[in-house]
Amino acid sequence: MSYIRHKAEESLEDYLETILILSSRLSVVRSVDVATELNFSKPSVSVAVKNLKNRGYITVSEEGFLSLTEDGQKIAEGVYERHTLLTDWLVHLGVDPIIAAGDACKMEHDITPESYEAMKKCILSVLGRG
Questions:
Q1: Which of 123, 44, 57 is nearest to 91 (CA)?
Q2: pTM, whole model, 2 decimals?
């Protein structure tokens, strides 16, 4: 089975992850919050929000508040898990935390589910979490 990620899919995953993270810090999440967090233009975020809404990953209230749907939440949590685990692993290996977070962001999208699960099992064991 082929596992090819497209940049557009990676971008959508990043938006969902960002909404998840912001929703843990803010009482409501708006497009402007996402734009600020990602340092993206408001028009770019507006296009992404429309796409996420059309795919059923988020809802947008009349006030403009963004909420993850069940499907969006599932994807966001998966991306966030991969990101945090890979970051922790790289830091454990001695990589600077800022560099580790950036590298983990790249890796989280490209790794196949099979390879990630194998790495996760090993990493959790080494980090004493498994």
A1: 123
A2: 0.87
Rounded Cα distance between 103 and 73, Å, is 23
Within this chain, do residues 114 and 57 fall inside the same structural domain, yes or no? no
Q: Give the residue numbers spanning the domain of 107.
A: 77-126
Render pLDDT for 76-117 as a digit per residue (tens, 0 to 9).
999 999 999 999 999 999 999 999 999 999 898 888 899 999
The C-alpha R_g of the chain, in whole angstroms, comes to 16
Q: What's the number of domains the chain is made of?
A: 2
CB 116 within 8 A of CB 82: yes
> How long is the chain?
130
Give CA–CA dist 53/72, Å, rounded: 10
68 with 82, same domain: the answer is: no
| 11 and 57 together in one domain | yes
**Cα 57 to Cα 29: distance, rounded to the nearest angstrom:** 14
3-state SS assignment for residue 4 = coil
3 state SS for 24-65: HHCCCCEHHHHHHHHCCCHHHHHHHHHHHHHCCCEEECCCCE
